[in-house]
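Render Succinate dehydrogenase [ubiquinone] cytochrome b small subunit in 3D.
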Amino acid sequence: MASSTLLRSTLPRTFASATGRNVLRSALQGTDELNLAYSSLISRSKARASSTAQYVPGGPIIKGTVNDPVEFPPPSRTHGSYHWAFERLLAASLVPMTAAAFVTSGSSYPVFDGLLGLSLVMHSHIGFDSMIVDYVHKRKFPILGPILSWTLRTATVGVLVGVYQFNTNDIGLTELIAKVWTA
């Protein structure tokens, strides 16, 4: 009876390793083997107690393992925080540019028309690209992910050409925004 209580108390720890499962399986096959399994568990626990790792509440902190802090990679202009800062700057700059488009006339400021058109298209491209990366990543969807990425790039180039044509051959974005706001 006492040996079955001991077996139940060590049950979660024995399932943690394959050897523990084998010991548990052999312990369930007979009482002679139960004594052997009990002695092997006791010898393992004594070996663990005599190891060089000192007990710290919450678990030992061992250098060179998952307990070490993550070293951050060096900053790169093509990855990471620079992209995030550019996205925030672009999004924040669209507010005053849209307000200025409402106030000014498009025919007077063609450079402003081009800058607003480029900013709107790039802001949209970044947003849709983030959605594709988050939900249809190429590691999980090896065929659909790249197809959608290239479709977005193609659509972005097409929209840039269309905005250029609209700004040079028609009324332009600032005139369009002014007309929409007054309509």
